[in-house]
Specification:
CATH topology of the largest domain in chain B: Rossmann fold
Structural class of chain B: alpha/beta
Order of helices and strands of chain B: HHEHEHEHEEHEHEHEHEEHEEHEEE
CATH class of the largest domain in chain B: Alpha Beta
Strand order of the largest sheet of chain B: 12-10-9-8-6-7-15
Number of domains of chain A: 1
Strand content of chain B: 15-25%
Oligomer: heterodimer
Distance between the termini of chain A: 67 Å
Strand content of chain A: under 5%
Largest sheet of chain A: none
Helix content of chain B: 40-55%
Radius of gyration of chain B: 26 Å
Number of strands of chain A: 0
Distance between the termini of chain B: 89 Å
CATH superfamily of the largest domain in chain B: Response regulator
Order of helices and strands of chain A: HHHHHHHHHHHH
CATH architecture of the largest domain in chain B: 3-Layer(aba) Sandwich
CATH topology of chain A: ABC transporter involved in vitamin B12 uptake, BtuC
Largest interface: A-B, 42 and 45 residues
Number of helices of chain A: 12
Number of domains of chain B: 2
Chain lengths: 305, 367
């Protein structure tokens, strides 16, 4: 029983952590380019609703994921227009985007509430999924779970080992310097937000197509904000984001597992566990300068006139 | 007299006949169709949630079908508070004479609007306050949960049942307790594990909670959140059984593992309300139905339920209706070992709102 609980806890952490990780990776890219996006929740909701409705209409969840990613990216372009083109305040624009996403997704999703979908299939690779302990923990998932680690590594590689990543980070640190070096801060920021939107959309689609297999209004229930917090938690690093998302997803799974096991602790207290854990880690890690935020995060680049 | 003397007697006759025809036509017109009634209904969420809201919405549709001269003004996703007041006033301005604010949290806004419009009638579900023109209706659910427990206790193979519940609210605790007592009455080895998600709507968390219970070997899942879809589907996916709540048509999400469900079928009750308002016999009151009422229904049983269990459920239902059986018949201990109901006594249904404990055999924390 202990074995199956541990197994359940680990697979529960992975499933709960996956949408968080997609969203966090997107936000890491955006913030590395100097843009903090509090509208991630809205982007995820757009992904969730477009992914779900596309799947209902076509019966093809893969197409749903594709549409969700595109919807997230396009929706994030509204934010891009506001903060890059119009140089609006990022925090205010982000919150506006979030509420806009909540409302728009509710409107678009209303006809699909209560619809039934098959959702993303579990893929169980032969031999691997039959391994005694590792099989059920590691190889009983949908495609988006398998893809999230390679994507995290890809983001890490792109940010730290490519010229594009270097330019992007330069824009986030000191846009004037990047501009002087012949880079295009605006173009790079748009690119960063587009990719962030793709990942945010996929995060929402994973929730509606794989985890819950349903659409409900505001079904992200704050996960977009958790992802913004996880970026700080992971100190703007894609690989640390893996640990952050797993830890947070794990805390959610753990508290529900503890209830199911009958651990005599108040459910109200257990519900706080993920947040207490976050506070604890932040308190321990603190704000060490070595992993501080991009220097120009949240600031508006006004060119070098 | 003048007219009779005139040569226009014929014209007069024609006019008179016409007048009579118009009157008769009007009379038949009004007698074949009773006075039109506008009914306003507010929902807290979507009417396609396969849960709480859909049950109310389908009730309104049945009422409309029963009384074709009813005009329905229906608004979804109305937040509780000032928005609800505005929507209700708007309905009244459109001519609504009966308003059904179909969420617990609409109670205070409805009372305020009711005071302002004493001629409009209000029927609010599950409330605890009344006004001269605001009545309340609900049905006592523990008996139905007890019956579901019987079916679950007879169907389970692992002797482990599970409940995913939004919050540890007294009425929900009472339902889970009743479910467990029902299961225990037919299967002494059974245990019921309960997990609280802390929210009425977070399908992602509901899926994780359902899986956590299934990981513990639970093979029957029940659910008390806004929409049962996620939990019922999670159970079906892993080959477990499920029990629904609120809406009658949840079975399609679990064709194999469906046991049954407790469903509210408000249609006939709403029809009665509307008729009473139309003929002026409506009176404010607190209506609490039970298994004998036509608005508390046991949903059709799924294929995996043994027929003996179905027969037993039907037999026990009759015993509840005749008053022979009481859900909370002592002695009852809570799951901390404290005696809550003494032998020979029964927990009063009126005190259900104060039930803050889980019965022995339920694994979970009530607070």
């Amino acid at each position: 029983m202990i074995g199956s609980s541990l197994q359940g806890l680990l697979s529960g952490s992975i499933i709960a952590g996956t949408p968080l990780l997609y969203a966090t990776l997107g936000e890491v890219i955006g913030e590395r380019a100097g843009i903090i996006n509090l509208g991630l929740e809205g982007v995820m909701l757009m992904g969730a609703v477009v992914g779900f409705s596309t799947t209902v209409k076509t019966g093809n969840p893969a197409l749903g994921v594709f549409a969700a990613a595109l919807a997230g990216a396009l929706f994030n372009m509204i934010f891009g227009f506001l903060v890059i083109e119009r140089r609006a305040n990022q925090l205010a624009s982000g919150l506006a985007l979030m509420f806009c996403g909540v409302g728009l997704s509710a409107l678009l999703g209303a006809p699909y509430i209560g619809s039934q979908i098959k959702g993303l299939n579990e893929i169980r690779p032969p031999i691997l999924s039959d391994l005694p302990v590792a099989g059920p923990i590691l190889f009983h998932y949908d495609i988006l779970v398998y893809l999230v680690l390679p994507i995290a590594i890809l983001v890490w590689w792109a940010l730290f080992y490519t010229r594009w990543g270097l330019s992007l980070r330069a824009v986030g640190e000191k846009p004037t310097a990047a501009f002087a070096a012949g880079k295009h801060p605006y173009r790079l920021q748009y690119q960063a937000l587009f990719i962030a939107g793709l990942l945010g959309g996929i995060a929402g689609a994973h929730l509606s197509l794989a985890v819950a297999k349903t659409w409900a209004e505001w079904m992200t229930a704050g996960r977009g904000f958790v992802a913004v917090a996880l970026v700080i938690f992971s100190k703007w690093h894609p690989l640390r984001a893996i640990a952050g998302a797993l830890l947070f997803g794990g805390a959610i799974a753990l508290q529900l597992q503890m209830q199911a096991r009958g651990v005599p602790v108040s459910p109200f207290l257990l519900d706080m566990l993920p947040y207490l854990l976050s506070l604890g880690v932040l308190a321990v890690w603190g704000g060490a300068r070595r992993h501080a935020a991009p220097a120009s995060l949240g600031q508006v680049f006004r060119g070098t006139e | 007299m003048n007219i009779r003397r005139s040569s226009n007697g014929f014209a007069f006759l024609v006019l008179l006949t016409g007048l009579i025809m118009v009157i008769v036509f009007n009379l038949t017109g009004t007698s074949s169709a009773q006075p039109k009634l506008k009914v306003g209904i507010l929902h807290i969420g979507s009417i396609a949630d396969a849960g709480y809201n859909q049950a109310h919405a389908e009730g309104a549709q049945v009422m409309k079908k029963n009384l074709p001269n009813i005009e329905l003004i229906e608004v979804e996703n109305v937040p509780e508070g000032a928005d609800a007041e505005r929507v209700m006033e708007n309905m009244i301005r459109q001519g609504a004479q009966l308003v059904i604010p179909a969420s617990f949290g609409y109670l205070d806004p409805a009372l305020r609007v009711a005071k302002k419009y004493p001629d409009v009638k209000f029927e609010h579900p599950g409330g605890y306050k009344l006004a001269p023109n605001l009545g309340t209706y609900w049905a006592s659910t523990p008996e139905a949960f007890y019956l579901m427990g019987i079916a679950a206790g007879k169907t389970t193979k692992t002797n482990k049942l599970g409940y995913v519940v939004a919050l540890p609210i007294s009425f929900f605790l009472a339902n889970v307790n009743a479910f467990h007592l029902g299961a225990q009455s037919v299967n002494p080895k059974v245990e019921t594990r309960v997990v609280f998600t802390g929210t009425f709507l977070d399908p992602g968390k509901e899926a994780t909670a359902a899986n956590a219970l299934l990981d513990q070997g639970v093979d029957v899942l029940g659910v008390i959140v806004d929409s049962p879809i996620t939990v019922v589907q999670s159970a079906e996916k892993r080959g477990a059984f499920s029990v629904g709540y609120h809406y009658i048509g949840v079975q399609k999400f679990a064709p194999k593992g469906w046991i049954s469900g407790i469903a509210f079928t408000w249609g006939e009750l709403y029809t009665r309300f509307a008729k009473q308002v139309m003929d002026g016999t409506w009176k404010s009151g607190a209506l609490l139905g039970d298994l004998a009422s036509d608005y508390l229904t046991i949903a059709p049983f799924g294929p995996g339920v043994p027929s003996a269990a179905v027969e037993l459920v039907n037999a026990k239902k009759k015993e509840f209706i005749s008053g022979k059986l009481n859900v909370f018949q002592g002695p009852i201990k809570d799951n901390k070992g404290v005696e809550r109901v003494k032998a020979g006594e029964a927990f009063p249904i009126a005190a259900l709102g104060k039930m803050d404990w889980l019965v022995e055999g339920v694994i979970g924390q009530a607070k």
